[in-house]
Protein backbone atom coordinates (compact mmCIF):
# COMPACT_ATOMS: atom_id res chain seq x y z
CA UNK A 1 0.00 0.00 0.00
CA UNK A 2 1.26 3.40 -0.98
CA UNK A 3 0.93 6.21 1.55
CA UNK A 4 -1.08 9.28 0.68
CA UNK A 5 1.26 12.27 0.59
CA UNK A 6 -1.12 15.05 -0.45
CA UNK A 7 -4.87 15.23 -0.15
CA UNK A 8 -7.22 17.98 -1.31
CA UNK A 9 -10.85 17.71 -0.31
CA UNK A 10 -13.81 19.92 -1.14
CA UNK A 11 -11.57 22.69 -2.42
CA UNK A 12 -13.20 25.64 -4.19
CA UNK A 13 -11.90 29.00 -5.32
CA UNK A 14 -13.64 31.77 -7.22
CA UNK A 15 -12.15 34.72 -9.09
CA UNK A 16 -14.67 37.56 -9.36
CA UNK A 17 -17.56 35.13 -8.96
CA UNK A 18 -16.16 32.58 -11.44
CA UNK A 19 -15.51 29.17 -9.85
CA UNK A 20 -12.12 28.19 -11.21
CA UNK A 21 -11.87 25.25 -8.76
CA UNK A 22 -15.15 23.63 -7.78
CA UNK A 23 -15.35 21.19 -4.86
CA UNK A 24 -12.15 19.49 -5.99
CA UNK A 25 -10.89 16.35 -4.31
CA UNK A 26 -7.54 14.83 -5.20
CA UNK A 27 -5.00 12.46 -3.64
CA UNK A 28 -1.49 11.46 -4.58
CA UNK A 29 0.71 8.81 -3.00
CA UNK A 30 4.43 8.64 -2.33
CA UNK A 31 6.01 7.65 -4.56
CA UNK A 32 3.69 8.26 -7.50
CA UNK A 33 3.70 9.82 -10.96
CA UNK A 34 0.43 11.51 -11.95
CA UNK A 35 -0.55 13.29 -15.15
CA UNK A 36 -3.21 15.99 -15.13
CA UNK A 37 -4.97 16.76 -18.38
CA UNK A 38 -7.98 18.89 -19.25
CA UNK A 39 -9.07 21.71 -21.55
CA UNK A 40 -7.74 25.25 -21.26
CA UNK A 41 -9.22 26.99 -18.27
CA UNK A 42 -10.01 23.68 -16.50
CA UNK A 43 -8.14 24.90 -13.43
CA UNK A 44 -4.89 22.94 -13.78
CA UNK A 45 -2.55 25.82 -13.02
CA UNK A 46 -4.85 27.13 -10.28
CA UNK A 47 -4.73 23.65 -8.71
CA UNK A 48 -0.93 23.96 -8.50
CA UNK A 49 -1.25 27.54 -7.22
CA UNK A 50 -3.41 26.26 -4.37
CA UNK A 51 -0.93 23.53 -3.40
CA UNK A 52 2.00 25.96 -3.38
CA UNK A 53 0.11 28.61 -1.42
CA UNK A 54 0.06 31.17 -4.23
CA UNK A 55 -3.76 31.08 -4.31
CA UNK A 56 -5.85 30.55 -1.19
CA UNK A 57 -9.05 28.54 -1.62
CA UNK A 58 -12.40 29.84 -0.35
CA UNK A 59 -13.27 26.39 1.02
CA UNK A 60 -11.80 22.95 1.52
CA UNK A 61 -8.77 21.20 2.98
CA UNK A 62 -5.25 20.67 1.68
CA UNK A 63 -3.34 18.18 3.81
CA UNK A 64 0.32 17.15 3.35
CA UNK A 65 2.59 14.49 4.83
CA UNK A 66 2.26 11.87 7.55
CA UNK A 67 1.64 14.55 10.15
CA UNK A 68 -1.32 15.77 8.07
CA UNK A 69 -0.28 19.40 8.17
CA UNK A 70 -2.62 21.89 6.53
CA UNK A 71 -0.87 23.75 3.73
CA UNK A 72 -3.55 26.43 4.02
CA UNK A 73 -1.94 27.69 7.21
CA UNK A 74 1.53 27.98 5.66
CA UNK A 75 3.21 30.69 3.60
CA UNK A 76 4.52 29.98 0.10
CA UNK A 77 8.09 29.75 1.37
CA UNK A 78 7.12 27.47 4.27
CA UNK A 79 5.38 25.18 1.79
CA UNK A 80 8.47 25.14 -0.45
CA UNK A 81 10.69 24.39 2.56
CA UNK A 82 8.46 21.55 3.66
CA UNK A 83 9.28 19.69 0.45
CA UNK A 84 7.06 20.91 -2.39
CA UNK A 85 8.95 22.01 -5.50
CA UNK A 86 7.36 23.60 -8.52
CA UNK A 87 8.56 24.02 -12.05
CA UNK A 88 6.90 26.76 -14.05
CA UNK A 89 6.56 26.72 -17.84
CA UNK A 90 9.28 29.27 -18.42
CA UNK A 91 12.70 28.05 -17.24
CA UNK A 92 14.26 30.26 -14.58
CA UNK A 93 17.90 29.19 -14.53
CA UNK A 94 20.71 31.70 -13.96
CA UNK A 95 21.79 32.25 -17.57
CA UNK A 96 25.15 33.84 -16.82
CA UNK A 97 26.20 30.91 -14.59
CA UNK A 98 27.40 27.51 -15.78
CA UNK A 99 25.35 24.36 -15.43
CA UNK A 100 27.66 23.32 -12.58
CA UNK A 101 27.20 26.65 -10.79
CA UNK A 102 23.43 26.49 -11.13
CA UNK A 103 23.34 22.99 -9.64
CA UNK A 104 25.80 23.98 -6.90
CA UNK A 105 23.61 26.92 -5.90
CA UNK A 106 20.55 24.73 -5.75
CA UNK A 107 22.45 22.15 -3.66
CA UNK A 108 24.00 24.57 -1.20
CA UNK A 109 20.58 25.27 0.28
CA UNK A 110 18.14 22.47 1.12
CA UNK A 111 15.34 24.52 -0.50
CA UNK A 112 15.36 27.72 -2.49
CA UNK A 113 18.20 28.49 -4.91
CA UNK A 114 17.27 32.18 -5.01
CA UNK A 115 17.95 32.58 -1.31
CA UNK A 116 21.35 31.08 -1.88
CA UNK A 117 22.22 33.49 -4.66
CA UNK A 118 21.48 36.36 -2.35
CA UNK A 119 22.89 35.13 0.95
CA UNK A 120 25.27 32.18 0.62
CA UNK A 121 27.60 31.02 -2.09
CA UNK A 122 29.24 27.85 -0.79
CA UNK A 123 29.02 25.20 -3.52
CA UNK A 124 28.70 21.74 -2.07
CA UNK A 125 29.15 18.17 -3.12
CA UNK A 126 30.97 17.83 -6.46
CA UNK A 127 29.88 14.21 -6.52
CA UNK A 128 26.23 15.09 -6.03
CA UNK A 129 26.46 17.74 -8.77
CA UNK A 130 27.73 15.14 -11.19
CA UNK A 131 25.07 12.68 -10.12
CA UNK A 132 22.37 15.29 -10.76
CA UNK A 133 23.91 16.32 -14.07
CA UNK A 134 23.91 12.69 -15.19
CA UNK A 135 20.34 12.31 -14.00
CA UNK A 136 19.15 15.23 -16.15
CA UNK A 137 21.37 14.37 -19.14
CA UNK A 138 23.71 17.37 -18.84
CA UNK A 139 26.88 15.64 -17.63
CA UNK A 140 28.73 16.74 -20.78
CA UNK A 141 27.57 20.34 -20.36
CA UNK A 142 28.67 21.15 -16.80
CA UNK A 143 31.01 23.95 -17.82
CA UNK A 144 28.66 25.60 -20.31
CA UNK A 145 26.94 28.85 -19.54
CA UNK A 146 23.27 28.04 -18.96
CA UNK A 147 22.21 30.80 -21.33
CA UNK A 148 23.75 28.78 -24.19
CA UNK A 149 21.64 25.69 -23.54
CA UNK A 150 18.69 24.75 -25.74
CA UNK A 151 15.19 25.37 -24.40
CA UNK A 152 14.83 21.69 -23.50
CA UNK A 153 18.22 21.57 -21.74
CA UNK A 154 17.28 24.64 -19.69
CA UNK A 155 14.11 22.87 -18.63
CA UNK A 156 16.13 19.82 -17.53
CA UNK A 157 18.56 22.01 -15.64
CA UNK A 158 15.68 23.60 -13.80
CA UNK A 159 14.28 20.16 -12.98
CA UNK A 160 17.78 19.24 -11.75
CA UNK A 161 17.84 22.33 -9.54
CA UNK A 162 14.51 21.30 -8.06
CA UNK A 163 15.71 17.71 -7.57
CA UNK A 164 18.80 19.10 -5.80
CA UNK A 165 16.43 20.24 -3.09
CA UNK A 166 15.04 16.71 -2.87
CA UNK A 167 11.33 17.59 -2.83
CA UNK A 168 8.80 15.01 -1.68
CA UNK A 169 6.32 16.46 -4.17
CA UNK A 170 7.35 17.94 -7.51
CA UNK A 171 4.81 19.90 -9.57
CA UNK A 172 5.57 20.40 -13.26
CA UNK A 173 3.37 22.57 -15.50
CA UNK A 174 3.46 21.78 -19.26
CA UNK A 175 7.08 20.64 -19.57
CA UNK A 176 6.79 19.50 -23.20
CA UNK A 177 5.86 22.91 -24.61
CA UNK A 178 8.47 24.07 -27.12
CA UNK A 179 10.49 20.85 -26.95
CA UNK A 180 11.64 18.72 -29.88
CA UNK A 181 10.37 15.11 -30.00
CA UNK A 182 13.76 13.84 -28.73
CA UNK A 183 13.71 16.35 -25.86
CA UNK A 184 10.19 15.24 -24.97
CA UNK A 185 11.31 11.63 -24.79
CA UNK A 186 14.19 12.52 -22.52
CA UNK A 187 11.84 14.57 -20.33
CA UNK A 188 9.38 11.70 -19.86
CA UNK A 189 12.26 9.40 -18.87
CA UNK A 190 13.55 12.01 -16.44
CA UNK A 191 10.16 12.54 -14.79
CA UNK A 192 9.53 8.80 -14.53
CA UNK A 193 12.87 8.32 -12.78
CA UNK A 194 12.21 11.26 -10.45
CA UNK A 195 8.86 9.73 -9.53
CA UNK A 196 10.43 6.48 -8.34
CA UNK A 197 11.31 8.11 -5.03
CA UNK A 198 8.79 10.97 -4.72
CA UNK A 199 5.41 12.22 -5.86
CA UNK A 200 5.44 14.01 -9.21
CA UNK A 201 2.44 15.78 -10.74
CA UNK A 202 2.73 16.68 -14.41
CA UNK A 203 0.23 18.94 -16.20
CA UNK A 204 0.53 18.30 -19.93
CA UNK A 205 -1.55 18.71 -23.08
CA UNK A 206 0.53 16.53 -25.34
CA UNK A 207 -1.15 13.10 -25.37
CA UNK A 208 1.89 11.31 -26.75
CA UNK A 209 3.87 12.70 -23.81
CA UNK A 210 1.20 11.57 -21.33
CA UNK A 211 1.12 8.12 -22.92
CA UNK A 212 4.89 7.82 -22.47
CA UNK A 213 4.59 8.81 -18.81
CA UNK A 214 2.55 5.61 -18.44
CA UNK A 215 0.85 6.59 -15.19
CA UNK A 216 -2.52 7.31 -13.64
CA UNK A 217 -4.25 10.28 -15.27
CA UNK A 218 -6.62 12.81 -13.70
CA UNK A 219 -8.88 14.74 -16.07
CA UNK A 220 -9.87 18.16 -14.79
CA UNK A 221 -12.86 20.02 -16.17
CA UNK A 222 -14.43 23.20 -14.82
CA UNK A 223 -12.39 22.90 -11.66
CA UNK A 224 -13.40 19.33 -10.76
CA UNK A 225 -12.19 15.81 -11.49
CA UNK A 226 -14.09 14.52 -14.51
CA UNK A 227 -12.38 11.14 -14.72
CA UNK A 228 -9.39 9.33 -13.27
CA UNK A 229 -7.51 6.16 -14.16
CA UNK A 230 -5.23 4.84 -16.87
CA UNK A 231 -4.93 6.95 -20.03
CA UNK A 232 -6.85 4.24 -21.94
CA UNK A 233 -9.57 4.29 -19.30
CA UNK A 234 -10.06 8.06 -19.27
CA UNK A 235 -9.82 8.48 -23.04
CA UNK A 236 -12.72 6.01 -23.44
CA UNK A 237 -14.86 7.97 -20.98
CA UNK A 238 -17.79 9.61 -22.81
CA UNK A 239 -17.67 12.81 -20.74
CA UNK A 240 -13.95 13.15 -21.40
CA UNK A 241 -14.50 12.68 -25.14
CA UNK A 242 -17.29 15.28 -25.10
CA UNK A 243 -15.49 18.04 -23.21
CA UNK A 244 -11.87 17.47 -24.16
CA UNK A 245 -10.92 14.95 -26.79
CA UNK A 246 -13.86 15.51 -29.11
CA UNK A 247 -12.99 19.13 -29.77
N1 LIG B 1 -5.57 35.04 -10.59
C1 LIG B 1 -6.67 34.88 -11.34
N2 LIG B 1 -7.60 35.85 -11.45
C2 LIG B 1 -8.71 35.69 -12.19
N3 LIG B 1 -9.00 34.57 -12.88
C3 LIG B 1 -8.12 33.57 -12.83
C4 LIG B 1 -6.91 33.65 -12.07
N4 LIG B 1 -6.23 32.48 -12.19
C5 LIG B 1 -6.98 31.71 -13.01
N5 LIG B 1 -8.11 32.34 -13.38
C6 LIG B 1 -9.19 31.78 -14.22
O1 LIG B 1 -9.48 30.50 -13.70
C7 LIG B 1 -9.71 29.57 -14.75
C8 LIG B 1 -8.73 28.43 -14.63
O2 LIG B 1 -7.46 28.88 -15.04
P1 LIG B 1 -6.16 27.96 -15.04
O3 LIG B 1 -6.03 27.32 -13.72
O4 LIG B 1 -5.05 28.81 -15.51
O5 LIG B 1 -6.55 26.87 -16.14
P2 LIG B 1 -5.63 25.84 -16.94
O6 LIG B 1 -4.27 25.87 -16.35
O7 LIG B 1 -6.33 24.51 -16.77
O8 LIG B 1 -5.68 26.27 -18.36
C9 LIG B 1 -9.59 30.34 -16.05
O9 LIG B 1 -10.89 30.72 -16.45
C10 LIG B 1 -8.74 31.53 -15.65
O10 LIG B 1 -9.04 32.64 -16.47
MG1 LIG C 1 -2.36 26.26 -17.13
From TrEMBL:
<dbReference type="GO" id="GO:0005524">
    <property type="term" value="F:ATP binding"/>
</dbReference>
<feature type="domain" description="ABC transporter">
    <location>
        <begin position="6"/>
        <end position="247"/>
    </location>
</feature>
<dbReference type="Pfam" id="PF00005">
    <property type="entry name" value="ABC_tran"/>
</dbReference>
<dbReference type="InterPro" id="IPR027417">
    <property type="entry name" value="P-loop_NTPase"/>
</dbReference>
<dbReference type="InterPro" id="IPR003439">
    <property type="entry name" value="ABC_transporter-like_ATP-bd"/>
</dbReference>
<dbReference type="InterPro" id="IPR003593">
    <property type="entry name" value="AAA+_ATPase"/>
</dbReference>
<dbReference type="GO" id="GO:0016887">
    <property type="term" value="F:ATP hydrolysis activity"/>
</dbReference>
<dbReference type="InterPro" id="IPR017781">
    <property type="entry name" value="ABC_transptr_urea_ATP-bd_UrtD"/>
</dbReference>
<keyword id="KW-0547">Nucleotide-binding</keyword>
<keyword id="KW-0813">Transport</keyword>
<keyword id="KW-0067">ATP-binding</keyword>
<dbReference type="GO" id="GO:0005886">
    <property type="term" value="C:plasma membrane"/>
</dbReference>
<protein>
    <submittedName>
        <fullName>Urea transport system ATP-binding protein</fullName>
    </submittedName>
</protein>
<dbReference type="InterPro" id="IPR051120">
    <property type="entry name" value="ABC_AA/LPS_Transport"/>
</dbReference>
Amino acid sequence: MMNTLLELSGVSVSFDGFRAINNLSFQIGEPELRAIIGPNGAGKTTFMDIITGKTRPDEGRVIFGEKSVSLLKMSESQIARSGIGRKFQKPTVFEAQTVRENLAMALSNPRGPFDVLLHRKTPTGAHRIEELAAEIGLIDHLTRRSGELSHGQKQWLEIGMLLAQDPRLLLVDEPAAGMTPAEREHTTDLLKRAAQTRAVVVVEHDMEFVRRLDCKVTVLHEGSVLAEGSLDHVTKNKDVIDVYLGR
